[in-house]
Design brief:
By secondary structure, the protein is α+β, with helices and mostly antiparallel strands. It is built from 7 helices and 14 strands. Strand 11 and strand 12 form a beta hairpin. Helix 5 crosses helix 6.
């Protein structure tokens, strides 16, 4: 391996370090996504390409069916009353800070299948205080999706306004809603456990039954008022559980205005939030198969494993290879090989013709 090759490989490995440490630059940047926030905008086809849902503090979906306090003592036997009305255990009326309509939070888990998102859309959501506003979409693996979100308080000018933005799949959003409903329930033991485990490390979150994650554990943008991000899917987002059939995963673009159990999230702002959401899709010209990443890393690991053996083999053979023509510049004499003298320069006299006065005996003696 020559010196130029070694220097070139060192520079290749050092380029990401130099770029990351550069001033005013970060690998996690939204500059590329910001450039793609423009395009031909079409109105969303509600419940066909985009669906709207919400979670509000005055409506608790779980308390309607699993609420406590509706047990009767019948013949000294505790049991659930069959005449109990199916209303939330903690009934509250919406206020002027809750602009969501009833269909948004009463049917948030409707399983209507959406068309793959292949067009550009823009919409404005009004998210109440201590609430959640979400857009459900079916992202296409054949398109690059860029989401641009701008948040501001409605009818108020607040320079310090901020909220949280998350991207989740269906299963992740369901765990997220469980925590929200537990927090707004009379029986919040589930919230207490989740709050105590808020500092759990990311590598252990998947094993935490109280935890919730965003998509790829990366798309969470907390305490922001403007954010742009892009997403490329490796393939259709679906998974098959151990017991059951394949389950398709939609995506939820979540605007969070409540104080969840994350330590770095923004608290409830106390105002109505106006969220401008723009979704831009760009068709991908070339898509590598999923197995290419594993194949590249496999070849790299094999190369790293066999390189020491190749280097050692070349080193061991370097002293055994004899050149075809022996140089005539003289060899070290040994018992098996007589001494060889180099050829004489034709311009110099032979050794017999040379005279060495210092070696000749003195005539006086």
């Amino acid at each position: 391996m020559t010196r130029k090759v070694v220097i070139f490989m060192i520079l290749i490995f050092m380029v990401p370090m130099l770029i990351t440490n550069a001033p005013n630059y970060s690998l996690v940047t939204n500059a590329s996504a910001a450039d793609a926030c423009n395009g031909d905008i079409e109105p969303p086809l509600w419940n066909q390409t985009v669906a709207r849902s919400a979670l509000v503090p005055h409506y608790n979906y779980y308390d309607m069916y699993w609420g406590f306090g509706d047990y009767d003592d019948d013949d000294d036997k505790m049991g659930r009353s069959h005449e109990s009305k199916q209303y939330p255990a903690e009934a509250r009326e919406p206020t002027e800070l809750n602009p969501e309509e009833g269909w948004m939070y009463q049917n948030w888990d409707s399983g209507s299948q959406l068309q793959p998102l292949t067009s550009n859309h823009h919409t404005t959501m009004l998210v109440g205080n201590d609430s959640i506003g979400a857009l459900r979409v079916n992202l296409s693996a054949q398109h690059r999706t860029t989401v641009c979100i701008s948040l501001q308080s409605l009818n108020e000018t607040d320079n310090d306004y901020s909220a949280d933005v998350y991207l989740m799949t269906t299963s992740e959003y369901e765990r997220y809603t469980e925590l929200y409903y537990s927090y707004h329930s009379q029986n919040s033991f589930y919230w207490d456990i989740a709050e105590s485990l808020s500092e759990i490390s990311p590598e252990w979150r998947s094993m935490d039954f109280t935890g919730w994650r965003t998509y790829r554990d990366a798309h969470q943008y907390e305490s922001v008022n403007q954010i742009n991000f892009a997403l490329n899917l490796d393939g259709p987002e679906s998974y098959t559980p151990i017991f059951g059939s394949e389950q398709w995963q939609n995506f939820y673009i979540v605007i969070d205005t409540w104080d969840n159990n994350h330590d770095s999230d923004s608290p409830a702002p106390g105002v109505v939030t106006a969220a401008d959401v723009t979704i831009i899709t760009t068709e991908r010209s070339f898509i590598l198969p999923n197995y290419t990443v594993a194949l590249v890393f496999l070849l790299m690991m094999i190369g790293v494993a066999i390189f020491p053996f190749i280097l050692n083999a070349r080193y061991m053979k370097s002293g055994l290879e004899q050149p075809e023509t022996m140089p005539n510049n003289g060899l070290v004499p040994s018992l098996e090989r007589p001494a060889e003298l180099p050829p004489m320069n034709p311009n110099e006299p032979d050794i017999e013709e040379k005279s060495y006065p210092e070696l000749e005996p003195s005539r006086d003696t």
